[in-house]
What does this fold into?
Amino acid sequence: MLSKNLSRFIIGLVLLLFCVNPGRGQVEQGQLEKLPLSLSLNNIVDLALAQSTTTKYVQNYNVRSYWRWKNFQTGFRPQLILTGDLPNFTHTTEPITQPDGSIEFKNVSNARMYANLALSQSIARTGTRIYAASSVYRIEDFNNKNIEYSGTPISIGFSQPIFSYNWMKWQKRTEPLIYEESMRRFIESIEEIALSATYRFFNFLRIQTNLSLAESNLRNSNDNLRIAETRKDLGTISENDFSRIRLSVINAKKSMNQSKMDMKNADFNLKSYVQLDLDQDVELEMPLNIFLFNIDVDKALREAQMNRKETPFYERRLVEADRELERAKRQNSLGATLRGSYGMSNNSSTVGGIYEQPEQQQMLRLSFNIPIMDWGRSASNIKLAESQRELVVYDVENDKKSFDREIIVQVEQFSLLKDQLTTSKEADKVAENGYEIALRRFQNGEISITDLNISLQEREKAKRDYIRSLQSYWVAYYRLRILTLYDFEMQEKIWYPNPMLEISDKERIIRDEQYGPPE
It folds into this structure.
């Protein structure tokens, strides 16, 4: 069964076929005319998630993070590499040292060929690098008409840092956390697109409502003006009231013109964001499908800590602070590297002769670095790293508290929206009914234009307040999803596929213990 989040992409693609194609939604009425497309908030969100340019950017960024993770994984797997020179021809004059120590310039003309096949493996826990290699070297001397071969049929070796900074061990700890952050950031970014679409939806809806109110006001003002003209002919209206009614018509026209200009901007912003055809007329539906459910604060905190990118981010900051402290300690004290190799080598006039009775080849070397006198530089570097680590620990603790507090406040605000929505809806109905009554009473000559304008203002304010309350609910709804990455309506974690990544489900889910997809 598809989850609600996954089905959004399918719904968005279906809407794309019916919304973007200019041949859709047309009827024959003497000529082809486009019908207004009625869209809900869910439709707008689905379209934004399915086809907005921001979605494509987020998906591409997630692909980049995925391949960084895969690149890190391959770095700790065996590497088989073939290197060589083929050919390496030289014809020149070079200074050659003679047996008696003198130097003579000799003509040199030769062709050299070299190939080396090496298998290497890094061990992150100890910082060790081990390898096995085989090589062959050929040189042809054109002056002496001579060909020689030398090579190493097999050699094995290692490089082991001692008391040194082990960058591989720390990379093994930080890269999985970075990958986990990126996977959670992808889900969060998709939800932020939904929130951004919600803001654009309500901006359009607010202006659409303003335009509808302006048209209604202009229509009623024209009716009032016609009634006032009749009363003026009968001498039953004062010049002052008649002038006020004419002014109300002018103001209604100004308001409608302003609403039309605002609508053009809102129309472009909405359609360009969700990639709708700019020539397609749309009409937004009032989002009344509200889910007023109770949310447990403790559950919201648990889900946020489990799902949000902040959890691995806080851990990574602490790990990086420990890493920098160890780096400072290791780089400012005794450091050594032990290298060794064992193999067989030989030279011959033929290739096959290299592998006949080769001689042993051995090497063992210990390199070290000991700071003797640095005027306290090493100690100050260590103290600086320790101080920086303490600051990071302090910042992380404060950030955790701020993050938890943000979740708690958002849950509390969401819980208070029920009363606000109920009150705003009731006020909208009362104000609408009051305006209708005031309009009839004015047309019957029972109240003045001033009283009607007061009722009109109350009606417009109540309508805008109701839309604002709806917006507050849906913004809080999506912000809560962003902060927890949990769908409290469906009681499931929020998850989105990335169509740009063809990977298995197991690789998409990061295991809590290993902070990375299984092999």
Q: What stands out?
A: The two ends are 26 Å apart (CA to CA). The longest strand covers residues 103-123. The mean pLDDT is 85.
